[in-house]
Each structure stands twice: as C-alpha cells, then as structure tokens.
Amino acid sequence: MDERSNIPIELEELTLALLHSRGEVARLREREWLFSTLLGSVNAVLWAFDWQTQQVIYVSPAYERIFGRSAALLLADYGEWRNSIYPDDLDYAAESLAKVLETGAVETREYRIIRADGQLRWLSDKCFISRQSEAEQTQIIVGIAEDITEKKQLEGELHRLATTDVLTQSSNRRHFFDCAQHEFAHARQFGSPLAFLLLDLDNFKQINDKYGHQMGDQVLQRLAYCGASVLRRGDLFGRIGGEEFAALFPGCEPALAEQIAERLQREVQRLGFSHEGTQFGVTVSQGLTSLRGDDLSLDALFARADAAMYQAKRQGKNQIVFA
C-alpha cells in the first residue's frame, strides 16, 4: 500500500488532537479566569511565603485594597511586609509567623497594620505550612489575612459600655471593684501598700431640687473629671453610686494618699457653676483608709472608708476623715 494513502488519516488524527488541545487550552483559560475572578472578589489576602528564601511568592489582589500598598513591591522585597506592621506589633507578628514552623499552623494571629495612607487597621491572619516537595523539604507558609477593624472597634465599644459609667465616663461600679480586687490581691501577695478612698458629693439632692437634674448631671461630670485629673497614672477612679465615687491608690503609702485626697478636696472646692445667673460651688466628704496586715478582703477597706466618709458627713461635711 502506498504510504501516502495514510496521510489523510494522520491529518485527521492531528486535526482532532489539535482541536482537543485547543479545547483544553480554552478550558484552562476559563478555569484561570474563574480562579482569578474568585480571588479578586474575596475580601481577604491569600498569601504564600518561602521561609528559606524569605520571599513572598504569591499575594492575592485583596492585598492592595486592604494594605493600600503595591503587591509588586511586596513580591520584590519581604521588608515591605515588615514596614506595614504597626511597630508595637512587629515582634509578635514575626514570632507568631516563625511559630508555624514548630506547630504546623497558627489559627489565632491578630495584629495591626499601617496602610500607605496612614490608616491603622486590624488583621486576623491564619497561616500553616504547605511543603511542596518531600525531597526538597521546601517550607512554604500559606495563609489568609482578613481585615477585622470593624469587629475590633465594636469589641472596644462594647467593652467601654460594659465598664464605663455613661454619665461621667469614669469606671462603673462593677469594673471599678473588679480592678480593685485585682490590685488588692497583688498588694496582699507582695506586701505592697494600698489606699482606698470614698467620696460623696455634699447636698446633692438640694442641687437637683434647686437647679434641676440637668445641672446635677453637669456637677457629677465635672466632679468625675476633677477626680481623674488629680489621681496618679495607674490609680483607679469610678462612680459607684448616685453621687458617690471611689478611688484606689496601688503602691501608695498612707502619707501620700492623704496628700492626694487633700489635693482633690481643694480642686473640688475650686469648681464653679452657674444657673440662670446664680453662682454656686460644691464640696465633698471623703473617707480614706490604707491596707492593714489583718485585712483579708477588699470589703474590709471599703467598710472602713465608708464609715469614715459618713463620719465626715456627721462632722459637718467638706472634710476628710482618715481611718
């Protein structure tokens, strides 16, 4: 048989193979397009990092939206990632990434970044190891980073509402005593000094009756601001009742606590208020005590300070009684 008689069959097979190849290419392009579309629509950064070379080898399109930085610069220089981390969180972010080499995965990793426009954002970044080749033992860390700024802001607002007195913006009763209990336990454990102060606004009912509750609220707000401004950094201050406030002074010797209470007394006396042309001032009665060796609970300090404060009321108000 003439060999040329097989040419049409070979051409037909070649044509079919070419058509099949073109179909495969089309399907691959369609899949690539679909994959790129999906990655582009995901509002999270997918990334891959080569630990040996210290290079980012892949980052999804969301990187530029969330970080506000160039993906090309990141792929060219891993230092671009470090430059985007908020300085206070850089050590944690680096250490938690390295921890993946030991544990295989890190599920809870939250840190802050600074976008190129200066915005501060919170990220939740989960990552794990994906080895490409057992022979090469290439260590590729892959992960997904989500912007959780709104969640963090909501958590912060919920925490503020749960711990803050709405009117005066000082600690509420529950938060104050939770923190005070912690400081009491610390003082007992390490034998450090601790002072407890209670103060009550004098004649507050008369202020409300004469000038109205709105003015009464203003008096409480300014009293709270005055108290917070007089106290030292690390001291606790909160509103624990209607017109009653409390302060706790960790690591404070009795003599210094007395000085702080006296300064607070003077500052309150300097407050001035005006209502429909009438000028008036306010005073407070204070009860102050310090931690003793036989105090087994915070309640003991609270009870002494409370008794001292009521003694100040009985003795004419606008004074401090030390117990």
- Tell me about the largest β-sheet: 6 strands, antiparallel
Task: Predict the CATH topology of the largest domain.
Answer: Alpha-Beta Plaits
Task: Write down the domain tally.
Answer: 2
Principal-axis shape equals elongated
Q: Please tally the helical runs, counting DSSP H or I stretches of 4 or more residues.
A: 11
Overall average pLDDT: 86
- The share of residues in helices is 40-55%
**Radius of gyration of CA atoms, rounded to a whole number:** 34 Å
Structural class: alpha+beta
- Percent of residues in β-strands: 15-25%
Q: Could you say what the CATH architecture of the largest domain is?
A: 2-Layer Sandwich
Q: Which H/E pattern describes the elements?
A: HEEHHHHEEEEHHEHHEEHEEEHE
Tell me, what is the CATH class of the largest domain? Answer: Alpha Beta
Stretches with pLDDT under 50, minimum 5 residues = none
Question: Main traits of this protein?
Answer:
323 residues; alpha+beta; Beta-Lactamase; Alpha-Beta Plaits; 2 domains; six-stranded antiparallel sheet; five-stranded mixed sheet; 11 helices
Characterise this structure.
The protein has 323 residues and is an alpha+beta fold. It folds into two domains: 44-154, Beta-Lactamase (2-Layer Sandwich), CATH 3.30.450.20; 164-322, 2-Layer Sandwich (Alpha-Beta Plaits), CATH 3.30.70. The protein contains eleven helices and 13 strands. The chain has helices at residues 7-41, 62-67, 71-76, 79-84, 90-103, 149-163, 173-190, 204-211, 213-230, 254-270, 298-314, and strands at 44-50, 55-59, 105-106, 110-114, 120-131, 139-147, 194-201, 236-239, 244-250, 273-275, 278-280, 284-290, 320-322. Helix 11 (298-314) links the parallel strand 12 and strand 13 (320-322). The longest helix has 35 residues, at 7-41. It is elongated and about 80 Å long.
